[in-house]
UniProtKB/TrEMBL annotation:
The keyword Signal applies. Residues 1-29 form the signal peptide. InterPro entries: Pectin_lyas_fold, Pectin_lyase_fold/virulence. Keywords: Signal. Gene3D superfamilies: Single-stranded right-handed beta-helix, Pectin lyase-like. Residues 430-449 are annotated as: Disordered. It comes from Nonomuraea polychroma. Transmembrane segments: none annotated. This is Parallel beta helix pectate lyase-like protein.
Amino acid sequence: MSGWNLRAGAALATIALSATTLATGSASAAAGTVYYVDAVNGDDAAAGTSPATAWKSLAKASAAPLAPGGKLLLRRGSTWRGEQLRLARSGTAAAPIVVGSYGRAAAARPVIAGHAEACVSLEGAHIEVRNLQVGLTGDGVRCSWAGFEVTGNHNVIARNLITGAAAGVYIAPKVRHTAVTANEFVDNNHMSQLTPREVNPNDDSGAFAILIQGDESDIGWNKIRGSMAFSYDYGMDGAAVEIFLGSRNRVHHNIAVDNETFTELGTSKEIKDNGRPADPDGTSGNVFEYNLITGPQTHTGLVTRGPRQPGSPPDPNGPVLATAFRNNTVYLTHPESQGVVCDAGCTNAHLSMSQNIVHAVVKTAYGPDVTDSHHNVFFAARQHQMGGTDNVTADPLFALGDATHPLRPRAGSPAIDLGVTSFGRVDVTGRTIDTTDGPPDAGAYEFNK
């Protein structure tokens, strides 16, 4: 766990995202100037307004006079190392600025890598970035801090491959309404802070696929794997989705395989030099639903916290309020795995969990004072330390022999019709949740009757 300061499994990475019906651009977008960039054959002295007159550098592209409805297209097969794409201009809700690719469909996506800070900096608003590869693995070519650094509001990051960073996507404090949709995050396993314990025993940080410090983000339909790295302080560290300071974010319909933790949440009691708190509104109201969390290397599904452990000093990163964890499937086989952990005096004010399937080895759920836990299926762990009602302790009967959907429930599963509330319209595969034939199921899949 950071201090801030499958193979039930490989098959899950093949689940199609066709049900997301993600558009390639806003239908209402107004026409605007299109600019082209080609790292191989471009020329910064050219006009940049056609493939034949494409620019060459990202510095030139970053200075493009983009207006609402405009586009910036990077040629497939191009690679930019050590350059940053800085997007400081803004579109509108009706006419966003779109950044994407052009060229032969069979060619590799455009690659932006090797920047010491962020490979793509989203500073404006209403910008959509699609179909790029951001980052490479390895020192000297990775995006050393972030693949995407988001400091503007109402931006979309969709259908990109993001790899090799300390934070694949970083959403800065006070940023609102970022959509991170249908991307593939692979091996964002770099530590941004890594010091021996004798220097500082609680400051290691990094290996995040997505780090959220902003609010009202929508994180959905992504495939996330390999968010883990060595830590002097914690042994291993990293998370698929880390939320620190952020509130009212929705994390849903993601497939997370072999990440150190799926999600950890925290706040800060730090007082800044100006006398104001670092997190004036706290961390609260984050929702996790219809996620698949698995892989033999994953240690923990969800980690959150209350204000303090009885008899101990206040938790420096608590309390985190009103986290909702519902209709997720957690299947962990690591010998030290824990499904859900809410410590430091955690109560119903800090966590509610319903209609999940949780399979783990050490603990299915820990939160001795939590009673808002209901209609879940728990199985296999040596310990379960959480109250609640209408929960089932039984084998969820996963279809582990199914090469495509090994964590869907089989006929006879106790998860079928266990739920009472339909929290979404579709399950993790995009299948409609039809409650006319019975109550909703527990877990991320809706059984096909």
